[in-house]
Amino acid sequence: MAGISGYFAWQRFGKQPGPNRVAVVYRLPARPVADTTPGTLEPVATPLDLPQADSLIIFAMQQLGSPYTYAGTTPTGGFDCSGFLMYVYGRFGVSVPHSTALLINTGRAVPREQARRGDMVIFTGTAATSTTPGHAGIIVSDPGQPLRFIHSSSARRESGVKISQVEGTDYERRFMGIRRVLGVAPLATENQAAGKTSANTKGVVTAPGASATKVKTKVKRASH
What we know:
alpha+beta; 8 strands; globular
């Protein structure tokens, strides 16, 4: 009887603890653009432990294959290069201009060797003599890796949203710089900007009742 009691006591208290259970989280692949309902913006499945840059890249890659359209800003209507950046960054509450000429001064400059996922990369236009911004994309590589970026290209071969590499391509010749906009505080508040505008216009006589006029600059877009 004592032997039986001892056996059941061992079964209850003497077993070795089982192996620790480890939760494995898999990153789901991005859905093809064709799976997105036209005219709607599907919420992105973003694990809480992913940093913002990774979430942004996942969303950007969901647009792979979207067509290139001059001045386009939507997956269904197509993107131009700056329209693609405006759409992707805007999804995460980061406002960037729909103009490559303005993107070169957006955010803050970052050395090329420190470029990381989510940074912007700016290039000149395709002309051999071009020295002004003409194309832009979003970095998808990490520091120490070949510089790769996702962008909307107007190239005759393989146009639309795709991933390209800088090294070993014509993008090397056209490279202008890296700009960081994720996690970067605005350089000036609206009030500071207004004060700066007033200072810049000091000495300019304005007729009574006249209001300031916002000047719109037309930017010529080259093929990318």
